[in-house]
Structure formats: C-alpha cells, structure tokens
Amino acid sequence: MPxxxxxxxxxxxxxxxxxxxxxxxxxxxxxxxTMMNLSGKKVDLSTYLGKVVxxxxxxxxxxxxxxxxxxxxxxxxxxxxxxxILGFPCNQFGKQEPGNAKTIQAFCTKNYGVKxxxxxxxxxxxxxxxxxxxxxxxxxxKPKGAGNVRWNFEKFLLNRQGEVIARFGPRTSPDxxxxxxxxxxxxxxxxxxxxxxxxxxxxxxxxxxxxSKKSKPVEE
Length: 220
Hints:
alpha/beta, Glutaredoxin, five-stranded mixed beta sheet
C-alpha cells in the first residue's frame, strides 16, 4: 500500500510539473498575432519565438528613411546569430509611405538592399491600429514607456521568449549602442526549449530499447 501511494503521489507531481512547463511555454502575447507580408502571405509571428526580434514601423519618404541601411547592417551582422528584424510600413506620419506593397518592396530592395522581413502596410496608432501595435504601445516599456508611436522608425525589442524588453524613439539610430548593446546581450542568452522541442530533443537522443534474452531465474 505505501508503495502504491508513493507511485500515485509521484504521478500527480509529474502532471503538475508538465502543466506548469506547458503554461510557461505558451507563446507570449507579442507573438500571438498573424500579420500579412508584402507578398500577401499570412505570417504567424510565433515562428519568431526563440529569436531576438526588433520591430520597426517604416516609411519610404521620411527624413529617417536612411535608417533602412542601418537596419540591414544589423541584419547582416546578427541575422545568423538569431536576430530577426520586422519592418511594418505605415502611412500615418506625414503620409510618407503612400506606395502599395509592390512599390514598397521595390524601393527597399533597390535603395537599401533590404533582406530582412518587411510586412504589409499597417496603422500603428488610433482606432485603426493593428492588434500587434495596440499591444506593443500599451506596454510600459523602458526607456520610452507606454503610449502612441510618435513617428516613423520607432523600435520595439523582444527577447528570445517574445517578451517586449525595450522601446526606442524614432531618432535613436539602429546602430546606436543603446540598441546594439541590449541586442547583443539577448543574443548571448541561449533560447529556452519549449515542451515540443524538448520532446523532439529527447526523441533524437533516446537509445532504442531492444528485447533482451530472458535470463534464467536465480536459484535461491
């Protein structure tokens, strides 16, 4: 009987631990959204979980548009190390992003050789703001805090767990140490394995169990 009770207790503890792990693995709200890319394809942002993510609202006819060059430089330097830059064109500030998806894509490629992911045009403020930006602007994220996006090229930084950890104003250059420093610090941290990746990892490393020959009973 005591052994049966121990087995039951051990089973319950295992269930509790698994439940807590799965709850912790649930993708964070910042990556809960599905967005449209410039090709018209829906992209589930949860695919970026495990990467350090820099989200930027962009424009093609702004005085800050040359920041595209610095963003691409970040992509070139850190992309293979786990940095993902997501550009979201927006026409809310001085109507400085008037083009359609095809025009925006051509502009980014021709003028700045952009290789990082750029999405379809969105609104970032007001009633028409997309759900992603409603979430981002509601966070009391340092150093800027909560509130509307002020202008083109405002930046939100997410860690590998998809948590918003920093927000930078439009005039803070992508290559400024206040941005590069946190990016490098987060990239240095190893991604946390999710429940599914743990299962896959265990499956890859498990040794196949083979039937052993029946041994003769030990004579007493």
